[in-house]
Design brief:
This protein is α/β, with parallel strands linked by helices. The protein has eleven helices and eleven strands. 49% of the residues are buried.
């Protein structure tokens, strides 16, 4: 039996491209003859019935905006068994028969729990961290990377002018993908990620000294958020080398901005796929990208997968960033 009324929400940290996914869910569902409800502020909105019916124009002119038009919020209440039951009860009262949940792994656990309470859910990976083990790509990653590259390029101008070393922290939580690819793109001397242990002398000081002997006068060190400690690292580098060293934390600027083409397309295709699954009566799924194609997996199975860091790409970075 096809789902007649579905809802869409965004949860967890915002990511550029979420609006493209929301737009695709709404327009796909409506094209199938379903009612589509927008839920404001994630699972918190479900608990408070902050829900409205969407039409084709509800999602006009949002595809090019960062953030999420549906807003997002954390919900401690929803993270309890009683909270999940209350949200499921609200869904039944409002006639919602399935939900597209756009967010990260915490959001998918919520989607799984709601499905167990009788409300079929489909997850769409929206996070700049690219840390969903089941998916080789998550919505927002490309935009965040391009933002980080632009910021480091600007920082390089002043770093080069003063023969300094800049230690730059990028986001990513415990995932080093953002740091790794940004580091390669900006020609960082050293890239530090949570997945690979590092030695201060060997991986930072010795590399800086080697490149200095070949004529290099300024240095960029890119550090993943999960490694942290950039202020101390900058101080230690300056004490060890005598090179003026500054720490910069890029922070939440990486979450904002107009989404890139890749994030708009990925969000659109994944959003379509999610709405299509609910139309066909399929829940407890997560839409992912594997080998460049959008497919869907069981949420529980996806959450149990172990993320694999691209060690080969890291090794390439070591070879070319000297």
């Amino acid at each position: 039996m096809n789902t007649k009324t579905i809802a869409v929400l965004t949860s967890g940290g915002d990511a550029p491209g979420m609006n493209a996914a929301v737009r695709a869910v709404a327009r796909t569902g409506i094209s199938y003859g379903m009612r589509v409800m927008g839920v404001r502020r994630g699972f918190h909105g479900l608990l408070n019935r902050d829900v409205f019916e969407m039409n084709l124009r509800s999602v006009s002119d949002i595809i090019h905006h960062g953030g999420t038009a549906l807003f997002t919020a954390r919900s401690p209440e929803f993270n309890t068994p009683d909270g999940v039951k209350k949200a499921a009860g609200n869904c039944r009262d409002m006639g919602i028969e399935g939900i597209v949940v756009i967010g990260g792994d915490g959001s998918f656990r919520g989607a799984r729990d709601l499905t167990k309470e009788g409300i079929p859910c489909v997850g769409v990976p929206g996070t700049i961290d690219n840390d969903i083990a089941a998916s080789e790509y998550t919505i927002g990653f490309d935009t965040a990377m391009n933002t980080a590259v632009e910021m480091v390029d600007r920082l390089r101008d002043t770093t080069e002018s003063h023969d300094r070393c800049s230690v730059v922290e990028v986001m990513g939580r415990k995932c080093g993908d953002l740091a790794l690819q940004t580091g390669i793109a900006v020609g960082a001397t050293t890239i530090l990620v949570p997945e690979i242990p590092f030695d201060f002398q060997t991986d930072i000081i010795n590399r800086m000294m080697f490149t200095q002997k070949t004529g290099k006068k300024h240095f960029i060190i890119v550090v993943a958020e999960g490694v942290g400690g950039v202020d101390k690292l900058a101080k230690d580098i300056e004490e060890k080398t005598g090179i003026e060293t500054r720490a910069t934390v890029l922070g939440h600027v990486q979450r904002g901005g107009s989404p890139t083409l890749r994030d708009r397309v990925a969000g659109s295709v994944m959003g379509f796929h999610a709405a299509d699954l609910l139309y066909k009566g399929r829940g407890n799924r997560i839409v992912v990208m594997q080998k460049g194609k959008v497919v869907d997996l069981d949420i529980t199975e996806a959450l149990e997968m172990e993320r694999v860091f691209d060690k080969n790409l890291y090794d390439i970075a070591l070879k070319i960033s000297i």
